[in-house]
Design a protein that fits this description.
With 597 residues, this protein is α+β, with helices and mostly antiparallel strands. It folds into 2 domains: 46-285, no CATH class; 393-596, 2-Layer Sandwich (Heat Shock Protein 90). The protein has helices spanning 15-41, 48-78, 82-88, 93-111, 150-167, 203-215, 280-283, 287-331, 346-392, 397-412, 416-434, 442-459, 485-494, 532-539, 553-565, and strands at 119-124, 128-129, 135-136, 139-144, 176-180, 183-192, 195-202, 220-225, 249-255, 258-266, 272-279, 440-441, 464-470, 478-479, 502-513, 516-525, 544-546, 549-551, 570-575, 582-589. The strands form 6 sheets. It has a 5-stranded antiparallel sheet with strand order 4-1-7-6-5. Strand 5 and strand 6 form a beta hairpin. Helix 1 (15-41) packs antiparallel against helix 8 (287-331). The model is unreliable at 1-13 (pLDDT under 50).
Length: 597
């Protein structure tokens, strides 16, 4: 098509200058918005304190979690101490007390480096009885910070022992909240064989340390369990439990008729979160003026966007819509589509000219490409069919020599009836192997296998017992010739010995799968089975090579299946779980006459 057929009108206002004008306009609006936003920032400086507190909250929780995890790792390494094992089975009270003293000393030394942990403990829950009748009752001994009173240590010991008894040793695996007489603690208990070890931290002490580290400006700071229960009595009485989120979030609540902005950050060490409260009145100061400015700017932006969309539709969207429609028609195979653009943009004019030129070139190339593809497909099909026929005809000549020897021996013994049977079976065998079909009914393949086994039964009287079960629905499925016979022949060749009995099993079943019907063929025998090295090669689809040379039979079957079914088939090799003989499972898709093409 010539350029004069495009009906294109030239203009002196290119798209680039118009887009530049639009970008400058948008930038001007954004700059104005940023200037207003900067003025507003003066009124909300105090609001930034919220983000700072939230970050400090997160930092505090992560720092505490880090110390808790270090303590957990300490106990994991502590279990290698020989004194721990001594506590479980001491030989005497002296040995018990010495081990206990060393462990307490080690815990006291370690506790000084844990700023957030107040107590480390070991609990021996059983009564220790010595051969002389002396007993040591269950006891919990610990190492505590000097700030903890003796009475508080006694309460903590009783609290921990009562908890272990209550849960019957079924621990949660996390740091848990426990309380005693209004005092709350975070406790981690680890079971080591018949002992319990762990750490304890006072919730009140944790809050004091956190406030001193930068969160003193918050109105309230406390710990909450994830079920909404406060771990302490910091807040005024709540009408209902707070719904604490399991991730770091912000939400609001009302305390003493005042609205508070709530910040929370969950611990990764247990089912609890650190929660801070800041009065919302201080945070939202100056918001009313900003809302008025936002309303005005919104109106201005709506008017601007409306005008911008009108220009965008005329200058860009309309030509693009025409181009899109032409591309969709081209995608559907319509090569008669042409663009007659009336756009005032030279850029779109060039695009349309290029598109029309491309369509013309496609029309010229289409016929050549189609014919070349057709020739290639025909050549490929002839090659594959010839390759299939070649592999099918790779028949072992020793089989025919053996059959002729049998006929010769029968003639010497003047067993004419058996000679007649043998020649009939052999003729059927030759006729089937010489046929040029790519696939045939499974029933025909099974008939051929029966014919083959009759020949072998004449060679080895009383040695071969065949068991064949074929699903009626599977008989009409198309399969490559010799796909079953190859494996039966391997059994006869390598396992059947005159005077010894060998069982051969063939079972075919029709299966319904999501991608269509399949026939599953199972073939196994009662012989010695595959060697492990042979099994690995077979399942990797490698040709078997040994001292007797290359073995083509099974390799040819797998190759033919790949050529016909393109990977939808499967062949799996193993040794049967009952007979221990060679076992193969072949799954072939039921694709009907398509396999013959």
């Amino acid at each position: 098509m010539k350029k004069g057929h495009l009906n294109i009108r030239r203009t002196s206002h290119p798209l680039r200058s118009r887009m530049t004008l639009l970008v400058i306009s948008v930038l001007a609006v954004l700059v104005g918005f940023l200037m207003v936003n900067n003025l507003y920032a003066i009124y909300v400086v105090r609001g930034n304190a919220y983000d700072a507190n939230a970050s400090m909250l997160e930092m505090a929780v992560k720092q505490i979690d880090g110390i808790f995890e270090v303590a957990d790792n300490y106990w994991v390494g502590f279990t290698d101490e020989l004194d721990i094992y001594t506590l479980e089975d001491p030989d005497s009270r002296l040995e018990f007390e010495v081990a206990k003293a060393r462990l307490v000393s080690a815990m006291n030394y370690t506790l000084q480096s844990y700023s957030y942990i107040d107590d480390l403990f070991i609990y021996v829950p059983k009564t220790t009885v010595f051969q002389n009748g002396e007993q040591i009752p269950p006891q919990l001994f610990d190492a505590a910070k000097y700030t903890m009173t003796a009475q508080e240590r006694t309460h903590i010991r009783r609290m921990i022992m009562d908890h272990i008894t209550a849960v019957e040793g079924k621990l949660s695996g996390d740091w848990e909240c426990m309380s005693w007489n209004g005092q709350y603690y975070l406790v981690r208990i680890i079971k080591f064989q018949n002992l319990y070890v762990g750490s304890c931290a006072s919730v009140e002490n944790l809050l004091d340390i956190i406030r001193s580290n930068g969160l003193a400006d918050l109105d309230y700071l406390t710990w909450f369990e994830n079920n909404g229960t406060e771990m302490g009595q910091v807040l005024p009485e709540l009408e209902e439990p707070l719904a604490i989120p399991v991730s770091a979030e912000r939400f609001t609540c009302t305390l003493d008729r005042q609205d508070y902005l709530v910040m929370s950050y969950p611990s990764r060490c247990g089912e609890y979160s650190l929660v801070g409260f800041a009065r919302e009145q201080e945070i939202v100061e100056g918001l009313a003026l900003f809302q008025q400015i936002i309303i005005i700017l919104t109106i201005v932006m709506i008017i601007y966007i409306f005008a911008f969309s009108r220009m965008l539709r005329v200058w860009i969207l309309k030509p693009m819509r025409h181009l899109y429609g032409a591309l969709m028609r081209l995608k559907d195979g319509d090569l008669d589509v042409r663009l007659k653009d009336e756009s005032a943009s030279p850029e779109f004019q060039l695009i349309n000219e290029t598109f029309n030129s491309m369509i013309e070139n496609i029309e010229k190339l289409k016929i050549d490409v189609y014919e070349e593809k057709a020739r290639h497909q025909k050549t490929q099909m002839r090659f594959q069919k010839a390759e299939l026929q070649y592999m099918k005809l790779q028949v072992n000549p020793h089989f025919y020599i053996n059959c002729l020897n049998v006929i010769h021996n029968l003639s010497i013994m003047k067993k004419n009836e058996l000679i007649n049977d043998m020649t009939t079976y052999l003729g059927n065998h030759l006729r089937y192997t010489m046929e040029g079909t790519t696939v045939d009914d499974l029933s025909k393949e099974i008939d051929y296998v029966r014919n083959y086994l009759k020949i072998q039964e004449l060679r080895f009287p009383g040695s071969i017992h065949r068991h064949i079960e074929i699903d009626p629905k599977a008989k009409s499925v198309k399969v490559p010739p010799l796909v079953v016979q190859t494996f039966v022949e391997n059994t006869v060749k390598y396992q059947v010995v005159a005077g010894e009995e060998t069982d051969i099993y063939i079972v075919a079943e029709y299966l319904e799968k999501t991608d269509g019907g399949y026939v599953c063929i199972e073939i196994w025998d009662s012989g010695d089975g595959y060697d492990e090295s042979i099994l690995k090669k077979l399942n990797r689809e490698e040709m078997i090579v040994d001292d007797r040379g290359e073995h083509y039979g099974i390799y040819n079957v797998i190759t033919r299946l790949h050529l016909i079914y393109g990977g939808r088939e499967s062949v799996k090799f193993s040794n049967h779980w009952e007979t221990h003989g060679a076992y193969v499972i072949i799954e072939i898709p039921d694709i009907g006459q398509e396999a013959e093409r």
